[in-house]
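Weekend entry, working from home. Most of the wet-lab plans are on hold until the incubator is repaired, so I used the time to fold the two sequences that have been sitting in the queue since the last round of cloning. Logging both here for the record. First:
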Amino acid sequence: MKNVLNTETKPFVKWAGGKRQLLPIIIKNLPKELIENRIKTYIEPFVGGGAVFFYIVENYKLDRIILNDKNEELIDVYRVIQNNVDALIDELRKVEKEYLSLDENGRKAYFYEKRDQYNSNKKDRILTAVNFIFLNRTCFNGLYRVNKKGEFNVPYGRYKNPTILDEENLRNVSICLKNVELHSGDFEEIENYVDDKSFIYLDPPYRPLDATSNFTSYDKGEFNDDDQKRLAAFYRLLNEKGAKLMLSNSDPKNIDEKDDFFDELYKGFNIKRVYANRMINSNGKGRGKIAELLITNY
């Protein structure tokens, strides 16, 4: 089995709350049934950047892998990488060359031109995927945020030499996605794929720790406390089906020690507090090691 630090494939997008830095802890907490090859199906209802998926697919043999995310644009990029990686790489190479040849003012204008193009035309799947990756690599903090109209609205980020095309990694991602089933919908839609030989890793939009750390607008809707409660009920339903479950979320106790929101929602399951470097508010002073929750039913 590969050491996680030598894993070749990594997420092709920067994603708020990405799990790459928590991967060693997640690996230590994987169910023994997966390690013993008794798990046949792996499912992620909120795939995001896919850091955990890439580790799983490179280290374990599974009969079926299902990746889902409510962000349809993100899943469309996964589909393009899965089926048209050569065309995607060719177009990204052109965009990277054009962008890096510009001065600061030119880059900023180019960014907003691509943002407008992305928001106004999503009929060309490869062009849309190119713009998605370009914007992700050059926008402020690599965020994906949309307004109520579904328009991407993250501003320009000032990076001196951003990597827009990582050809080797994109090809590795394409290999990892071979035979993977890709879906875009609500998390509850994966229920019919789950049985007692399934392992599901749930990484929903985190509950905001404060008003300035709200990164839940990754599609036209928001993932609010009612959705967190609905997810907890779904977790219990999957538990009754005999599936092995792991869920990540923020720990409200970082801000308020009396906030038992998740402790109450997931009472009866194993709740571990693990630590990650996160920016918990917009002014940068909130960046540091904070607790996050890892909730399992085993």
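Second, folded right after the first finished:
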Amino acid sequence: MNEKEPNDLTLDEVEKIEKLTLRWIFQAILDFGMEAHEVFLKSPDNVKDIAEDITRELLDRLPGHNVPQRIYGTVDYKKARYVILPDQTVRQALFVDSKAEKENRSATIQMSQTSMWVRQRRSNVEVNEKGFLPEISEYGEKYYLATTSLVHFKYEDVENIHHLKELTIAGIPNGLLQDRYNPSCDDNIWLAGRNAPTRGEDFRVRLSFSKLKAKASWRVQKIYYNETSGECAAKWES
């Protein structure tokens, strides 16, 4: 097996691995089909727990080459994997978190869920906060490229029944790609997080789907659920 160490990857190779990973997740959700919609309709759990359960179940069905190595992170799904490329393999630490909200403009993330610096302005003050996730993690004396994605469920409530309407998948760039996606406070992919520093709350940030899509359209994919036809539909955005 021709393995390439994550430290030796070019930035373009990191982008290709993240794009391939988002493709996997996209296909896994399509294969899951309307089952996600049915779970939202019938589950008595709260929407956050429903989203977490669906994310774990559909990604457990994801084919691939897993590494027998436990990894750690504050996300709903985490797995050590081999990314199989035409000429080489790369060890990957895959982190996927899920959100369930009634809007799909953005998603709140914790700093433990990104390896990027968050550079933005808040109340006209420059913010520069480092994500806690390493760009490249070490487990068992081997190195793994961190790849982080979000699965965002948009739903509506009708008579206390949850109706899943859309699912947004977003590929958060690895911190190695900082200069491509968030080089400065005025050039970023973020919105202000829902945390109150005056109350001592931990710093949080919201990933803006529109800003990220403007940087690279493939990093934000949408899947739509049609209750009338009983089908889910999507078209990969290149």
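Plan for Monday: verify the second prediction. The longest strand covers residues 142-158.
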